[in-house]
Design a protein that fits this description.
Helix content is about 35%, strand content about 0%. The chain has helices spanning about 25-30, 35-50. It is globular and about 35 Å long.
């Protein structure tokens, strides 16, 4: 499973969430050790977390032109 990281790695001090992906520092640090089920559980709630914290979800990355 891929990471939800969108290369906007800034922590929101008020919520403790990454502004880019919505994960906590503990989730980011332990991501590679989590199983697929736990990763899916976390990813399914990221949009709600960002909304609840009043953070705007970034637009998906655009393909780079060659």
């Amino acid at each position: 499973m891929e990471s939800p990281c969108v290369d906007i790695c800034t922590m929101d001090q008020a919520s403790g969430l990454c502004v880019g992906c919505g994960r906590t520092l503990d989730e980011i640090a332990g991501w590679s050790r989590l199983g697929d089920a736990e990763r899916r559980r976390i990813m399914s709630g990221l949009a709600r977390r960002l909304d609840a914290a009043g953070l705007t979800r970034p637009a998906p990355p655009q393909p780079k032109e060659r």
